[in-house]
Amino acid sequence: MIRIAAVGDIHMGPDSQGVLRPAFETLPDCADVLLLAGDLTRHGTPEEARVVAREVKDLGVPVVAVLGNHDHHDEQPDEVTAILQDGGVQVLEGQETVLDCGRGRVGVAGTKGFCGGFAGRNAGEFGEPLMKEFVRYTRRCADGLRTALERLDEQGCDARIALTHFSPVPDTLAGEPLEIYPFLGSYLLAEAIDTAGADLAVHGHAHAGTEHGMTSGGVRVRNVAQPVIGRAFHVYHLQVPERVPTGTPAESAG
Amino acid sequence: MNNLDYRVAHLRERLAGGPLAELGVQVAVHGDSVLVTGTVPSSHCRDEIGRIVGETLTGLTVRCDLVVAEASSPDQAEELA
């Protein structure tokens, strides 16, 4: 079993330093990894990123993140990423990482993702250049997620997780106004997840949504936006095949 | 400009574009009253939003039912078999 802790939309600023740290310090007792599903800051300023970095530094478990739209607002995503990395956070955008948790090898593929809506009620790559670029940007994010998940498959992970900020499915948006669903996620992310395969998809962004959902391909989706889960983080126990101890006949036969 | 719909739209823009960068708050009009709901990261944010809403929607009855995000550890994990 691999224990996945996750939270998104913590929206930290200078006045929130230390608010989440006491809960985060309990992570080594209950989780093998902490996933941060974007919108870690309010405006994406370096000052706010430093608050986040200090909040998660030296927690005793690996921390893997994607950025959210708020983390882009100040138009310094590379600086925000660098500050988080200095704090020990792995920040993914069309990338993947493999963590050996002792209980199993867990692969995390991440992208911020973007919007566009869900199958049958989605924006199309048509018309004005801005509209086409809007959809193409989402498609690039989804392609990055798919290829990262495929690379994880080649690396023999016990479990693969898709980490995004925007939602891949409408299920976890229930509670949000229907009219804004197209701004909350895209089916292209779910298609990428179902094409490459994953054991769990985790996202944030939809503060008024619900926690539980599933892709058309049967991958479980969890909206971990802090207002949704109502905690500093939630923990998911993923069942994986038991590891065979070194030196046993099963291993030597392989 | 007295149309309430536009005033609420401008309020939402002010909340998003201001120092709080708050996009997660719902503002619903009920007759002559306005209900503000949602979860915000700190009591400072909650108080500031209440102040801005009152300032922007003068003359209306405003009820701010905002809550501050819970920062405690979870009681249990979800088993994904």
CATH topology of chain A: Purple Acid Phosphatase, chain A, domain 2
Oligomer: heterodimer
Query: How big is the Rg of chain B?
Result: 15 Å
Low-confidence parts of chain A:
248-254
Mean pLDDT of chain A: 94
Sketch the major β-sheet of chain B.
3 strands, mixed
- The CATH architecture of chain A can be given as 4-Layer Sandwich
Strand content of chain A: 15-25%
Cα(first) to Cα(last) distance of chain A is 23 Å
Rg from alpha-carbon coordinates of chain A: 18 Å
Structural class of chain A: alpha/beta
Give the largest chain-chain interface (CB within 8 Å).
Answer: A-B, 37 and 22 residues
Strand order of the largest sheet of chain A: 5-6-9-10-12-11
What does it look like?
The complex is a heterodimer of chains A (254) and B (81). With 254 residues, chain A is of the alpha/beta class. Chain A has a single domain, classed as Metallo-dependent phosphatases (Purple Acid Phosphatase, chain A, domain 2), CATH 3.60.21.10. In chain A, 29% of the residues lie in helices and 22% in strands. In chain A, helix 3 (46-56) packs parallel to helix 4. Chain A is globular and about 50 Å long. Chain B has a single domain, classed as Histidine-containing Protein, Chain: A (2-Layer Sandwich), CATH 3.30.1340.30. Chain B has helices spanning 4-17, 43-56; strands spanning 26-30, 33-40, 61-68, 78-80. Chain B starts with a helix and ends with a strand. Chain A binds chain B through residues 3, 9-13, 15-16, 19-20, 22-23, 26, 30, 42-43, 70, 73, 177, 199-200, 207-208, 220, 226-227, 229-239, and chain B through 20-21, 23-24, 26, 38-39, 41-42, 44, 69-74, 76-81. Strand 13 (234-238) of chain A pairs parallel with strand 4 of chain B, so a sheet runs across the interface.
